[in-house]
Design a protein that fits this description.
The chain is 0% helix and 52% strand. The strands form five sheets. Strands 1-3-7-5 form a four-stranded antiparallel β-sheet, with no helix packed on it.
C-alpha cells in the first residue's frame, strides 16, 4: 500500500540572537520521501506573526519544495520559539518544524560578538538610493573568530563577511543589492555563526524600502 511521507530539511533552525519589530526568514526544503504523493491540507503556525505560504500543495514521491517561513518578532523580548505544523492526507501525525530565537530590544555590546547595525536598512528615495552598506562585527573575546553564514543564500544581495574577526577588535563586512533588484522592495535576513561557540548565532534582518516623493 502506498504511503505519503513528508520530511523537512532541516527539521529545526536556531536564529540565535535577533532584534524585535523585525522580519526574520528561514528557508527549508519539504521532501516527499514516501511512495505516494503528499497532499498538504493545512498549515498551523501558532500565531499570525509567523507565515509559511506554499507555491503548491502537492509534492510527488522523490520531489521537494522550497518554503520560506517568515517570523515577525514584533515586541517580543527574550527567548522565543515557534512550532509550525504541516497537516497532510494519510499521515497519522503532522510534520512539526522547530524555530528558536532570542529577541533583544537593542544589540548588547557585552556579547562575545555583536553586529552593527543590527538591522540592514537599504532605502531608495526619489533623489537618493542606498544600495549598499558596510557593517561592523565586534569581537570582545581574547581569540580570533571565524564567521560564516548558515542561513539560505539571499537572492537579492551580495554579502561579504570578514574572513577573521581579530581578538578584542572589530572587522567589517559589506552588503550590496544586485542591480536587478534595486527597484524592488523585500524583507529577508541572514543568520551568522561564529566559531568560538557552535551554538552562538546572530540573525540580522534586511529590508529594502522604496520611498515615494509626497512633495510633488
Amino acid at each position: 500500500m502506498s504511503q505519503p511521507v513528508l520530511k523537512s530539511s532541516p527539521e529545526n533552525f536556531d536564529f540565535g540572537i535577533t532584534i524585535n519589530n523585525s522580519i526574520i526568514v528561514h528557508k527549508l526544503w519539504l521532501k516527499s520521501t514516501g511512495t505516494d504523493t503528499v497532499k498538504i491540507k493545512d498549515i498551523k503556525t501558532g500565531c499570525s506573526c509567523t507565515t509559511m505560504p506554499l507555491s503548491r500543495n502537492e509534492i510527488a514521491p522523490g520531489d521537494s519544495l522550497e518554503v520560506a517561513i517568515r517570523w515577525d518578532t514584533q515586541r517580543t523580548y527574550g527567548p522565543d520559539k515557534k512550532y509550525p505544523f504541516i497537516f497532510y492526507e494519510g499521515a497519522k501525525e503532522p510534520l512539526r518544524i522547530g524555530l528558536f530565537t532570542n529577541v533583544q530590544n537593542v544589540p548588547d555590546s557585552n556579547l562575545p560578538v555583536s553586529v552593527w547595525p543590527f538591522k540592514f536598512e537599504l532605502g531608495k528615495h526619489p533623489a537618493k538610493s542606498l544600495d549598499s552598506l558596510e557593517f561592523r562585527i565586534k569581537n570582545t573575546t581574547d581569540k580570533d573568530i571565524a564567521a560564516s553564514i548558515v542561513s539560505h543564500a539571499l537572492e537579492q544581495c551580495e554579502i561579504n563577511l570578514p574572513k577573521v574577526l581579530p581578538a578584542k577588535s572589530a572587522a567589517f563586512g559589506f552588503i550590496k543589492i544586485k542591480p536587478e533588484f534595486v527597484g524592488q522592495e523585500f524583507q529577508d535576513s541572514i543568520t551568522i555563526r561564529f566559531s568560538h561557540d557552535d551554538k552562538f548565532f546572530i540573525t540580522v534582518p534586511i529590508r529594502r524600502k522604496l520611498y515615494v516623493d509626497t512633495q510633488g
